[in-house]
Amino acid sequence: MPTKKTTSRHIGPVIKCQVCGNTKLQPVLSLGHQPIPQEYLTDRLVHEMTYPLNLQFCTKCGLTQVDYIIDPEIVFPKNYPYRTGMTNMLIRNFRQLAETMDEQYHFKPKDLIIDIGSNDGSLLAQFKERGLRVLGIEPTDAAKVANKNKIPTIQAFLDLKTARAVVKKYGKARFVTATNVFAHIINMPELMASIKTVLDKDGVFVSESQYLMDIIEKLEFDTVYHEHLRFYGLKPLQYLFSQYGMSIVDAERITAAGGSIRVYAMKGKHAPSVRVKELMKKEKEAGLYDIKKLREFAADAVGAKHELLRVLIECKQTGGRIVGIGSPCRSNTLLGFAKIDEQLLDYAVERAGSPKIGMFTPGTHIPVLDEKQLFEDQPEFALMLSWHIGHELMDKLRAAGYKGKFIMPLPKPEIF
Asked: In 3D, which of 279, 291, 242, 296 has the Cα closest to residue 60?
């Protein structure tokens, strides 16, 4: 989660690169004005604030980033509805991360691991099982869930004051993790200073962020939303860490969240691994820092939107009912960009226990119902809004008794 201390220069239009400060930023993709993606509504008639949602590219360090930043206390309120424990894919990823780190760094019983933006403590639970001391830092009420589950968690935004208090009480951490939050944080200088404060001299900082390579290869433009401020490749990450006296020592591509990059960094100067060098080479070959390649991606996104609308309209014209499967944050970008509302989508369903059930999607005002409604109604079509784990979900829903057809929206709309 973002740091709490901000200044006006961190909020509003992004006129300087968030990593290197360069002012030569090139526009890439416009997704229009959209509301905050996790601001689900209790009443579909509520007036909503919308904000620009566009991508731009830094010609100096190669960072792809949004062009407008919203105050983090608005984007991540205390009642923020997301819970990592509701997503099996993430639990599997957290388990694999713990196994990998144990193999590489050989955990010791007194080792401390701190997780930034720890949500309900699902990641730290994997490390606690392996005997480590664990501590979460989480600003939303998900911290209360973690503490109830006996995962010690401080409910706060990470800043230098919190970092110093943590070190005073718990000591330095051998490991610090930031999974799917490192690209959410607006005050980079304070964030990096806070990480260095809590990290031991030989400690390891591990971040996981959605990988720009996967976003382009799979046309995952729906992963662009107001929580995600930056879309990382290794080149801008190397630039970032070097600015703060740290080095990337290793990196790997992982499947989490539709394709992410896991980066290991340490204080001081260290040689990069073979994997880092190989990924850097692949990024260059793929044109990850070529504005022409990025604009081709943008044109493909517009084409996919038009094709999806064609498919949905044809399904409706045959008298078919269409229901959305899942209501992840990313789906609200897709719905808003394509202007898909309840005229096309009857409702969306979430697993029992989701705090989104009984509410309406931001911007498009589609009702979110309990998943059991899908099996009772048996609509003719199910639109896979959680399409990044779509095939896994299709198998489960079919086994559970859904008889209709599935629509996969991206990268190319298809009916199964």
From this structure: 291
pLDDT of res. 2: 43
Distance (Å, rounded) from C-alpha 353 to C-alpha 120? Answer: 14
Q: Are residues 327 and 369 in the same domain?
A: yes
Position 37 in a domain: no
The answer to whether 21 touches 338, Cβ cutoff 8 Å, is no
Is 370 within the bounds of a domain? yes
Residues in the chain, overall count = 416
SS3 at position 243: helix
Tell me if 353 sits within 8 A of 374, measured CB to CB: no
Tens digits of per-residue pLDDT, 310-348? Answer: 999 999 999 999 999 999 999 999 999 999 999 999 999
129 and 255 housed in the same domain: yes
User: Residue 247 corresponds to which tokens in the numbers above?
Assistant: 């080095």
- State the helix-helix crossing angle for 234-243 and 274-286, rounded to 10 degrees: 130
Q: In angstroms, rounded to a whole number, what is the distance separating the alpha carbons of residues 194 and 188?
A: 10
60: which 2 tokens? 């100096």
The enclosing domain of 382 has a CATH number of: 3.40.50.720
* Structural domain that includes position 255: 84-289
Of 222, 254, 289, which one is at a domain's C-terminal end? 289
Q: What is the pLDDT of residue 251?
A: 98
Provide the mean pLDDT of the chain. 94
Q: Do 121 and 250 have their domain in common?
A: yes
Q: How far is CA 172 from CA 193, 195, 201, 203, in A?
A: 14, 10, 9, 9
State how far the Cα of 389 lies from the Cα of 60, in Å rounded to an integer: 34
DSSP annotation of 271 reads P
Model-level pTM?
Answer: 0.91
Q: What angle do CA 259, 193, 195 make, to 5 degrees?
A: 50
In a domain, 295, yes or no: no
- Cβ-contact 181, 116 below 8 angstroms: yes
pLDDT for 80 beyond 80: no
Same domain, 315 and 283: no
Calpha distance 369→178 (Å, rounded)? 31
Task: State the CATH number of the domain containing residue 203.
Answer: 3.40.50.150
Q: Which residues contact 193 (CB under 8 A, 6 or more apart)?
A: 160, 163, 244
Q: What is d(CA 136, CA 179) in angstroms, rounded to the nearest whole number?
A: 12
Is the Cα dihedral 102, 104, 110, 112 positive or negative? negative
